[in-house]
Amino acid sequence: MWNSNSDILYGLALTFVHGVGSAKIKELSQKYESLGDVFALPEKVLVEQCRLNESAAKAISGNSATLLRLAEREIESAGKEGVKILSIYDADYPSSLVKRRSDTPFFIYYKGSASLNDRRIISIVGTRNMTHYGKSFTESFVSDIAKIYPDALIVSGLARGVDITAHCAALKNGLDTLAVMGTSFPTIYPADHRRYVGDIMEHGGLVTQFQYQSSTDNKNFVERNRIIAAIADVVVVVESKGNGGSMYTAEWSHRLGVPLCALPGDYDRVQSEGCNSLIRSGKAHLVTSAADVDEILSGNRDDSFLRRVSAIQSHPSSEKNSPQKPDLSALDLDEDKRQIVEILASTGPSHKDIIARESGKTISEISDLLFDLEMEGIVRETMGGGYEVV
Prior knowledge:
By secondary structure, this protein is of the alpha/beta class. 47% of the residues lie in helices and 11% in strands.
């Protein structure tokens, strides 16, 4: 049974052990009555029964006092700043992160006034080198979202350009906004955005997965983008270069089955390369207004475009050769997997949101089933971002 008082200390101590990630901490928390029990285990047991590597086992059994001091320092630092350390077992931890990611951070650090659950969550991302076109769209989009979903939470990454424009537009229109940081709490990046932090925490919040004692690293911002994608009901890419950071957020949302939207732009505008590519590949819905996103969230969006792109890109000669339906009787599948395969066999290449709608299952459930079916070699992802029976 998870004890939020004592287990947070031991759980944080484990985060300082190289080779012990969030998935392993979760596994240990379910295996033992208390994570404190792990620190009492002999090194051999840690290796054989907990399946830790020898280096990690040695660190836990022989250096527990140091690890616990580091954990105590984290708790003390967070307490001084009024920052909550939330584990995946806390009611305030974003449930969407737990449902969509098996490797979601076991702990997050949060300071703010907003609930991160039971509301529409819309992530808005884009380039730092925003154009007037991107700025105008972001501001009008958030303004209209406030009218449709007055309780919506606008999420972004506190960066320059589209991110901070989305945060400020949310505040201006009376919406809560959440800034997902790629740094620990002592470091606000970029530094000049510190002036926005007070308002964001009063009408939303700041969240990070990075410890007070962690150093700032470029790869941290990649991890930050994963959170931005996984926490959302929908991700909107406003402007992005073809290889911009927002494209990582977009790719991750696509993998997780989070509906992805992109604002189209001029073909010769570098800031629109990424968005146009996402739309062309069929990974993203084309959006030009908040009404488009409302259609997606309410399930009224016509998915025929995504269907056509998936079908065309996976079967270039489909007009000449009609694909043969697979023989499902030869497949040893449970009921849920068989349902997915039957849908794909009937409809042809389809995206996760379409499969979810047809099956009555959640996007998270569909993602897990498709992953298993991919590993079994029964389905594959198409170039258009859909899935088809092999």
